[in-house]
Amino acid sequence: MLSESFFASTGGPPLSSRTEIARDVGIYSYQLHPTLSAKSTFKKSSTSPNCLAVSDSHIFAAQKDKAHVHVYSRIRGNQEALIPFQEKITSIALIQDVLLLGTAQGRLILWEICTGRQAATPACHVQAITCLAATSYHVLTGSDDSNVHVWSLPHLLDLDVRADYEPDRSFSNHRAAVTSVIIFKSTNPETSMCISASKDKTCIIWNYQTGEALRTLLFPSIPLCVCLDPCARAIFVASEDGSVFAVELFGDKALLGPRSEGLSSTAVQVTTPLGVAEADDGPASCIASSFDGTTLLTGHSKGKVLQWTLASDGHPTKVADLNSPVTNLVFSQPMAEKKPIKIHTVVKPTRAERQYTFTAQLETSLADETKFSRVLNSKGFPPDVLEAALLGLEQSNSGTSSGQGADEANEELWQIINEQRALQQLTFQKYVEAKTPH
User: Fold this and answer.
1) Section 371-378 average pLDDT
2) Pairwise pLDDT comparison (403 vs 293), residue with the higher score
3) Which residues pair with 194 in a beta bridge?
4) pTM for this prediction
5) Checking phi first, is residue 65 left (phi over 0); if not, alpha (psi -120 to 50) or beta?
6) How far apart are alpha carbons 150 and 64 in whole angstroms?
7) Where are the alpha helices (DSSP H) in 55-192?
8) What span, in angstroms and rounded, lies between the C-alpha atoms of 243 and 32?
9) Which of 83, 100, 205, 268 might form a disulfide with 69, Cβ 3.0–4.6 angstroms?
10) What is the mean pLDDT of the chain?
């Protein structure tokens, strides 16, 4: 059984004077499966929602109401760097080796952690960026101004990007501040869907490459955080009244696809929650789904981390009590993706230089790939190898006479057969002589 671990961060002062929990710890690492256990802690951090990002080697935590990002090394278990910025950081997200940062002035900052290169957009949001979501090609920014902007990530990282670069499109169907944005990991334009939650008590499913609204979900209270099932079959929403909802997208009453009922403009009222947290736990400010899709975690304002089992009656169990408002939950990959590089030390961002040094450890060989290794590591036979084999077979057949080649092969076979027959007769004769009585 694979082990699953998650990170939880807190923001705010301790809720009580309990001594079993260290006062200066702000980030916790837990193993959830196969057995629940605490793994490590990281000190001197206080984060707001959507301000924690985790890679295979580092943890990035944007500090609450500050223009600082703390960088922690997962390998060494300590704080590696404190990165200052000119504006308060209100949300962060990590995509490959690029850290995305949303500011209180509505600006998007991109930081290449391997080179230290920093790029920034104009203040396209009139209020703070509250949430970020990204793929390898697009970045989505949600803001308190109720808008969601869609950006092209390759254009933002272009060395010759324009100073007045604007988003590719904007989604303005919400009527209040955007609280959360999640994105489907798909590159097909027809399935490039995302979900945005807002204080107008709605979650809207829409296509971020076309801007088309596909379905609107209405909730009885404000949805504070949203996460997606690992197979994109359902979304999980935690609302302000402590309720946790599970909304199936392709069930018996499908909301999307050819089996969906009703028009896309028809809003769907979501009333039945998966479960409701106790009043003493407070509302959930963060939510995360395990990679097998059977377990849901929520972090609450009263310091509790609750576990919801989707197959049960909806009553949660306590995973941890951190004695401070839990603001972020992030699952780490159970099987880390193999990458050609490994980052040991991040490079601090700078905008003054035009030449940058790439700092990382190479995980693959720089030697030229041989034909044997390429065929061995490929799925099936590569097309060029098959073509060469077919051409070689055709040339060998055309270069020799078919009749002459067949006669020679037959003569060799008959010679082998006759030799085997003679050996068999000699062996049988010795056997008969041995059995004959004298």
Assistant:
1) 79
2) 293
3) 183, 206
4) 0.81
5) left
6) 25
7) 153-156
8) 23
9) 83
10) 87
